[in-house]
Specification:
- The chain is an alpha/beta fold.
- The chain has 19 helices and 18 strands.
- The strands form five sheets. The chain has a nine-stranded mixed beta sheet. It has a three-stranded antiparallel beta sheet with strand order 7-6-8. It has a two-stranded antiparallel sheet with strand order 4-5.
């Protein structure tokens, strides 16, 4: 069955040096590890074990193996007994001996208890306890009379003490005394609390089939005075510990302990190995149902074949030595070689932009065809509109030509941007710094040029619009032929009317005076006509001048665009150079990151190998074997072909399929490693006192009433 191993903070640190032991079984999808957060803020299973959903995805049946209690470094007052790390003293009502000896009906203060509720749900509400109800047969009536019958008569007039005294007096005269036990039912308040807790721990996903909890404990060494103290109470009645009911653990929980030697002990490494192998063996085997019961505490132990362990580790030490040599060589050769200083870090790239074939002469408006009158020989406004429309078409055609030239240059730019650097050797730190400064300088220039180029089409549109407005205004201010005729006729009429008396007078004075007067009149009329002509010609020339200025500005724009070809070429050349340099810098930074990552990986692997060598040497010595490092299966040259990943795989211990004995019962289970000889799961006798003090006199005392089916019910002190 698939097993999810939940690690407390303590067990995660403890197993960190043994993680490679579990890797093959993780790869075979037999087990998965999840971190268990024990804080009070972890109020749901998603918060307590956030990776659980991903670990069990697609698994129809699964179970949980919890390593640790979450209170490994707690004070002795947190536990009811040092023998049982799963029995918390807080489950008892220490300050009120009248309350039942079970955990209060509320969210547990202990992370392990909360975790079991999250995984399996809150236990069903059973009897809250049992209370004794003594009885006897009345000597006269032969009726059975109970103490509860006497207590029922307690009133304001009859005190409880009087009722108890009456019962004792009647009991002394009766016969056949017996003790009966009555179930203590939950109160309505307790039922309401139970319903709330049941809803709190409702299943939001599939529940595991069982939850195995494994914890370590220190071997108990009793002081002589404690042994003498406990001897005084050896005669008192005791019963099997009811820690499951007392702490409100669900029925599908199983509990195991492993006696771990303290840190600093000579064989602590071997003891840890046995603990780790016990966890792994439990995780990959489905033990018989009779092997683990829900209401018992078991001792977990693994017996190791010392000879096989020494042989396995000596052979593996040879592989580790080979890998260490390979890693050291890689660390020496992985250093980046400095780049030759005489070669340039970033070479300039040249891009050509050809604007020589631009047809800029077509960008003009016709200047001829404008006479003295605005409607002769045709409408000047229509002529101007037609010229502007033709100019717009020519501008569109003109702009396409540099666009095509630029497109060709951009295509060349892209082609050169995609090429590889000629010199791709590693750069030194000084080269990288110089390249960064060069790119920063070029970047500022690119931004400035890009802003300048973006304004050119706008300038052309503004030029056309400005001149169009001025020329339209000038055309609108000019006179038509009819207006000119009317103005000229009126002017001539005025002058003729003004000169007519003068001519008539000269006629009567003689032919000589008449001729002179007619000459003067003609001169004056000619002067009026000449002035009118000059005014109309000036207006015509102003209009033509505006049109010529427009053409001049268009020619200047075309010249500027043509000259801009070099600027575009310079911009694109800078762009290509910048792009190639930027890519070179990014590649160098990525190379340096890979180099740094590889160095760190190699150093971690080297440190891990050193730790593994020391650990395995310690294990060989603890097993009573001599350290005889055998020739490894991997040469350095062979490791070069497989790379670093293969070297990391050699940290895993060699495996061989096999079985080991289970509990000296004749049954066998799968042995994860060949040196495992036997898996022992031994039931421990953990008892609760029925009439006397706690098993451990150093722990706080508290009275409790055992409860549950077929339980005794006399009070005892803990």
């Amino acid at each position: 069955m698939f097993t999810v191993i939940l690690l407390s903070e303590y067990s995660e640190r403890l197993l960190s040096r043994w993680r490679e032991v579990f890797v093959p079984f993780e790869e075979q999808d037999q087990i998965a590890f999840c971190t268990w957060h024990q804080g009070q803020l972890a109020g749901s299973l998603e918060q307590a074990v956030p990776d659980l959903g991903a670990a069990i995805k697609g698994k129809e049946e699964w179970r949980v193996l919890v390593v640790g209690t979450g209170h490994e470094h707690g004070t002795p007052s947190e536990y009811l007994s040092r023998d049982n790390p799963f029995d918390f003293a807080g489950a008892l009502a220490l300050d009120n001996p009248t309350l039942p000896g079970v955990a209060p009906m509320e969210r547990s203060a202990y992370s392990l208890v909360r975790l079991t509720h999250m995984l399996l749900g809150y236990p069903e509400l059973g009897p809250m306890g049992f209370e004794p109800d003594p009885s006897f047969r009345d000597a006269k009536t032969e009726q059975v009379r109970y103490e509860s019958d006497f207590m029922a008569g307690v009133t304001d007039e009859v005190s409880r003490a009087e009722a108890e005294r009456a019962f004792r007096e009647a009991l002394a005269e009766g016969h056949h005394p017996q003790i009966h036990y009555r179930v203590q039912e939950a109160s309505p308040e307790e039922r309401e609390k139970h319903a709330a807790l049941t809803k709190l721990y409702e299943a939001r996903q599939a529940r595991p089939t069982e939850v195995l909890s494994i914890a370590t404990r220190l071997p108990r060494t009793e002081l002589l005075r404690n042994q003498l103290n406990a001897a005084w109470f050896a005669h008192e009645r005791q019963q099997s510990s009811q820690f499951v009911e007392r702490n409100r653990y669900p029925a599908s929980c199983r509990f195991l302990v492993h006696d771990m030697k303290p840190q600093g002990h000579a064989s602590v490494d071997l003891e840890e190995l046995r603990f780790v192998m016990g966890i792994l063996t439990l995780a990959v085997n489905d033990l018989p149902a009779s092997g683990l019961q829900s209401d018992r505490l078991y001792r977990l132990d693994v017996e190791v074949d010392d000879v096989e362990l020494g042989h396995t580790l000596n052979r593996h030490l040879g592989d580790l030595v080979d890998v260490r040599q390979y890693v050291n060589q890689r660390l020496q050769t992985v250093e980046l070689q400095p780049r030759p200083t005489e070669s340039a870090v970033l070479e300039d790239v040249s891009i050509k932009v050809n604007f020589e074939k631009l047809r800029g002469e077509t960008l003009r408006v016709p200047e001829s065809g404008y006479s003295l009158a605005t409607d002769r020989p045709s409408s000047e406004m229509e002529r101007w509109r037609s010229g502007v429309d033709a100019l717009g078409r020519e501008i569109a055609r003109f702009l396409r030509e540099p666009s095509r030239a630029l497109a060709q240059a951009v295509s060349e730019t892209r082609a050169k941007q995609g090429r590889s650097m000629v010199d791709d050797s590693p750069l030194s730190s000084i080269d990288v710094e110089e390249l960064q400064e060069d790119l920063a300088r070029r970047s500022n220039g690119l931004v400035r040029h890009a802003a300048d180029y973006g304004a050119e089409p706008e300038r052309l549109r503004e030029l056309i619009a400005r001149n169009d407005k001025q020329i339209r205004k000038a055309i609108n201010e000019r006179l038509t032929a009819r207006s000119i005729g009317i103005v000229l006729g009126v002017a001539l009429g005025v002058w003729v009317a003004a000169l007519l008396p003068y001519v008539i007078k000269a006629y009567f004075e003689g032919p000589l005076n008449l001729g002179e007067s007619l000459l003067v009149a003609l001169v004056l009329v000619g002067a009026v006509v000449l002035v009118g002509y000059c005014v109309l010609e000036v207006m015509r020339r102003q209009l033509v001048g505006l049109i010529k200025r427009t053409n001049s500005e268009l020619r200047a724009y075309v010249s500027a665009v043509t000259r801009a070809a070099q600027d575009y070429a310079s911009f694109l050349s800078e762009l290509v150079t910048y792009t190639l340099g930027k890519r070179r810098l990014l590649e160098e930074q990525a190379r340096m990151r890979r180099h740094k990552s590889e160095q760190q990986r190699l150093k971690r692997l080297r440190d891990r190998i050193e730790d593994k060598i020391e650990l395995e040497k310690s294990l060989v010595k603890s097993a009573g074997c001599a350290i005889q490092i055998q020739q490894g299966d991997y040469a350095v040259s062979e490791l070069e072909k497989f790379g670093l990943s293969r070297a990391e795989r050699i940290l895993l211990w060699p495996r061989s399929r096999g079985t080991c004995e289970f509990n000296r019962s004749g049954d066998s289970v799968v042995a994860p490693y060949a040196f495992i000889k036997r898996l022992s799961v031994e039931a421990l006798v953990i008892q609760d006192p029925m009439d006397g003090p706690a098993l451990d006199p150093n722990y706080p005392r508290a009275t409790f009433t055992p409860h549950g089916p077929n339980d005794g019910a006399s009070r005892g002190a803990l």
